[in-house]
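Dear Dr. L.,

I hope this message finds you well. Following up on our conversation about the binding site, I have prepared a predicted three-dimensional model of the protein together with nicotinamide-adenine-dinucleotide. For your records, I am including the exact sequence and ligand specification that went into the calculation, followed by the structure tokens. Please feel free to forward this to your student if that is useful.
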Amino acid sequence: MKIAILPGDGIGHEIIAEAVKVLRALELPFETEFADVGGTAYANHGHPLPEATLALAKAADAVLFGAVGDYKYDKLERHLRPEQAILGLRKNLALFANLRPAICHPQLTHASSLKPELVSGLDILIIRELTGDIYFGQPRGRRTAVDGHFPGADEAFDTMRYSRPEIERIAHVAFQAARKRGRKVTSVDKANVLETFQFWRDVVTDVHAQYPDVELDHMYVDNAAMQLVKAPKKLDVVVTGNMFGDILSDEAAMLTGSIGMLPSASLDASNKGLYEPSHGSAPDIAGKGIANPLATILSAAMMLRYSLQQADAADRIESAVTSVLESGLRTVDIASAGTRTVGTREMGDAVVAAIRATTTTITKTTS
Ligand code: NAD
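The resulting structure of the complex is given below.
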């Protein structure tokens, strides 16, 4: 197994260092290779996604990504900005499925904007189609209107479109993920108004015929936005298009309290993936040693589960994170009365110690 490690910018280096430490504590046979990406790559090689970085990402079995971006690069031409690296990786690696778990650890319910009883134990997986929809549909642009309410006026337009294979492949990802969880998929659309999403609903229903063991329901996106804040625990796997997924996954993220806790995966058709925390490079706290590394550590767990077929190792990381939270350790973003605030490195060390403790227990039990 070869893992490409792309720390990126800002807190990227600090959080990736902890995730790598945790991966090494598992003592699995994998190789790691580091490369520059984002602003760091621009500064060192003149491009946010150098050829060598892309080649490494393509050759590896999985990519672990920190974060990119720094305000000092905001005046660069768009194609040279750090954030272009992530778009380039998604495109070149054909990463069409974005998986974002929204998990509210019972120890962190106070950090949510919802009442504790609504979010305690929350565990939703939002699956967003990542390479289609109105974000990529052609034609798009600006022109002079020839019809509509104001003929002759300037107007702008985008095109919403999905093909059957694009919907089929994301639906398969959702049904297969549901089989590893609560066997329930909610497909979110706007079939009552949009032709594209009536088609989406029809195709998801067709694919469902291959998964009789998984329950499927359909929900309009406006209702889904409501249900996420009214009764989020009723949802298990949510699958939706690129634009609705963009919005709903951020809404779901906020239910869990801190963005510093949220991992994500972006997968291709053969489950090769890029794994990254849901947050950015946090330039405001970079270099201070206070960033929460848990989203990146949990992204490494997703990488083990989805791309490297090491579900047991993924479970061990996730259990270690839970036990560290239970022990009362918190980085500053999730701290509250009665907990002990630690820095990035100390949090990573605590997860490593919890993993080693389970290794010792397993060895003792088997010997
Ligand atoms: P951000 O996610 O970097 O930060 C938002 C807030 O959350 C900040 O106050 C930050 O300190 C805090 N925060 C983020 N991660 C944290 C962590 N692990 N622990 C503790 N606190 C954390 O978003 P932003 O400030 O809007 O963007 C900063 C830069 O990141 C920009 O250049 C933006 O383009 C980039 N960005 C990159 C990605 C990516 O690499 N995928 C995603 C989003 C934003």
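In brief: The two ends are 29 Å apart (CA to CA).

With kind regards,
A. P.
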